[in-house]
Design goal:
Blueprint (H helix, E strand, L loop, with lengths): L1 E2 L22 H11 L2 H11 L7 H4 L2 E12 L1 H5 L7 E11 L5 E9 L2 E12 L2 H12 L4 E5 L4 E5 L3 E4 L2 H7 L4 E2 H12 L7 H4 L39
Antiparallel strand pairs: 1-5, 2-3, 3-4, 4-5, 6-7, 7-8, 8-9
Length: 242
């Protein structure tokens, strides 16, 4: 569940006109954390945690727990079979917020108009999937890269040769023991290869863009992009969204 509680400046664009992926450095991780801990952000979090009346905004006393983690999603270039394409692309950084009554939420942060030193929060999503799967992936495959296939809401971790599942949806897709990277590429290319940006499927509107609709309903799975939560009104969508 996302909450339209922030506004933000437009991000830098890549050559194809889509939002350029953020750069992952120690500086950007710290900038994302600072954005999440700003007083204005904590005030908004108080309202978010109080939205269903479980706790009052004043009593929610939100805090940011741990460090920001990178959130990656299945890469369209990988699905298309482009030589050297990484399986996933970095979309945003997520910080975990915790309320006094134990509620958790993820703050999505992206670069602002000022670049790597001006990161800003653009969305709040309930739960702590991002941090939880990042930690789980580090245990399952040390040094691996955690990413999400949003069309089926599946989380994985991969290295240079294999892909391992981190949740039930991923286990259904690749089996409990995972798959080789080549086998996974073949699977996603078959599933989404004709639904990429610029395809007739996408132009017809059936793909629904790269938004939250990607993981809902019986319609054919759209092209890669984040599905959990919603980019906020007036704010930039994470890289890889349209």
């Amino acid at each position: 569940t996302g909450a339209a509680l922030f506004t933000a400046a437009a991000p830098a664009l890549a050559d194809d006109g889509r939002a350029a992926p953020p750069k992952l450095t120690a500086t950007t991780l710290e900038a994302a954390h600072e954005a999440a801990t700003e007083p204005a952000t904590l005030t908004t979090l108080s309202r978010f945690f109080a939205r269903e009346g479980a706790v009052s905004a004043k009593a929610s006393a939100p805090r940011i727990e741990g460090k920001a983690v990178p959130v990656r999603t299945l890469s369209a270039a990988f699905v298309a079979g482009k030589p050297g394409a990484a399986p996933s692309t970095l979309d945003y950084l997520a910080s975990t917020a915790v309320s006094s009554d134990g509620q958790k939420a993820s703050l999505w942060t992206v670069p602002g108009a000022g670049g790597s030193d001006a990161w800003q929060v653009v969305n709040i999503a309930t739960g702590d999937d991002e941090a939880r799967y990042a930690a789980q992936g580090a245990r399952a495959l040390p040094g691996g890269t955690v990413f999400r296939e949003p069309q089926i809401d599946a989380w994985y971790v991969h290295d240079a040769s294999r892909v391992l599942p981190l949740d039930e949806d991923a286990r259904t897709a690749v089996g409990a023991k995972g798959a080789t990277l080549d086998a996974y590429r073949a699977r996603v290319r078959q599933a989404y290869g004709d639904k990429l940006p610029g395809s007739g499927y996408a132009r017809s509107g059936k793909a629904g863009g790269y938004g939250p609709e990607a993981a809902t309903g019986p319609a054919p799975a759209p092209a890669p992009g984040p599905a959990r939560g919603a980019a906020l009104a007036g704010s930039p969508a994470p890289a890889g969204t349209a």
